[in-house]
Amino acid sequence: MRALFTAATGMTAQQTRLDAISNNLANVSTTGFKRSRAEFQDLFYETLKAPGATSASGTTLPSGIQIGSGVRLATIGRQFKQGDAQRTDGELDLMIQGDGFFQIEKPDGETLYTRDGSFQRDRDGNVVTSDGFRLVPNIQISPDAIQVTVLRDGTVSVLEAGNPTPVDAGQIELARFSNPGGLFALGSNFFQPTDSSGDAQTGVPDEDGYGSLAQGFLESSNVNVAEELVNMILAQRAFELNSRVIQAGDEMLQVVGSLYR
After folding, report:
1. CA–CA separation, 9 vs 41, rounded Å?
2. How, if at all, do strands 127-128 and 120-121 pair?
3. For residue 67, how many other CB atoms are within 10 A of its CB?
4. Per-residue pLDDT tens for 178-229?
5. What's the CA gap between 103 and 42, in Å, rounded?
6. Which residues contact 136 (CB under 8 A, 6 or more apart)?
7. Are 213 and 152 in contact (CB under 8 A)?
8. pTM for the model
9. What DSSP designation does 29 have?
């Protein structure tokens, strides 16, 4: 019975959808997290009578007979909608308002990308992530610094003890991609470019379409809890309906089996 296998694909699809929803809800408090959405496609069709075919009487059929085989997972796309601003007043907490990613260098020299702007200073004064990876270009802050200022355009200046004149500490640059949805998620809020995302294009914040920086703020997750809960209910109901199709198919097979008794 075709309905059994078709309903099974529907149950598998809704289980995958629920997996994506659960990951979104688990990261509702993750800085810079971007929600994922499962998207599906219908499977191939068995054509018993093609639309537009000629009938036995010589007329053209207005519609045909095609029976579908179910559904399959097409993609789990990441939604890069801007998250809400969360005020922290941290001097090295930075939020990108608009398009762009921070560039982060691993110890092996590989460059990764993130929307998480919660930076700190290491023992040498370098601006690093919570994992100790340096910001690119490297920003080094003097140990005598009593105040760090980051402007909208990424200019970093430092006020040192005994010096009333701020000292330039460097320039933060952002990266962006032609297709950010094609980035490879590595975990720890990091992304890696792929052939689908294209190469990184770097530029100065608040210029040429790049987002501006806001000091003392962090970007919250863009997960909408109410929306995810609604999607979870819909996935659960769709799973139940497909399971009932299997149950109905099984009961029909039992009826057919009883005809031989």
Report:
1. 11
2. antiparallel
3. 11
4. 999 999 999 999 999 999 999 999 999 999 999 999 999 999 999 999 999 9
5. 39
6. 103, 104, 105, 111, 173
7. yes
8. 0.86
9. T
What's the token pair of residue 246?
Answer: 């299997």
Cβ atoms of residues 83 and 221 within 8 Å: yes
Task: Report in angstroms the alpha-carbon separations of 149 from 93, 100, 152, 169, 181.
Answer: 11, 20, 10, 10, 32
Six-digit token string for 68: 């579908």
Residues 226-250: pLDDT tens digits? 999 999 999 999 999 999 999 998 8
Q: CA nearest 220: which of 84, 56, 90?
A: 84
Rounded Cα distance, 132 and 249, in Å = 57
- The span from the CA of 85 to the CA of 207, in Å, is 21
CA distances from 148 to 5, 66, 143, 161, 162 (A): 62, 67, 11, 12, 15
